[in-house]
Amino acid sequence: MSPRARPQVSDASLRTKVETRLAALRIRRALTQEEMALATGLSLPTYWRLERGRIDNPPIRYLVNCAVVLECELMDVMEEKYLQWLPVAGQAPSAPEPARRIGLKGAEQRRRRS
Asked: The pTM is what?
């Protein structure tokens, strides 16, 4: 992959008809879904589901690979729903108190600072 300028991500530019931040970034980089799937090591159907937000809890490796290919920060490809508390079978049914205080608001503040 040839080196390209790193895209600047803004919430306003992501308010398009695309379903996810990942799709918006891919389109801005002028890459096809097929190119992304190949570059990330994902099958095309898996990449389609990831880009359309059909994978509720994607493996972090999928997201890291996408961020590396798109030359952006991991948080740039993270959807808000990925940052919410997700109980694990047999674990705490709700977020512990410190996580509730930080929540998505803290993640958004960290994203804006970088």
From this structure: 0.67
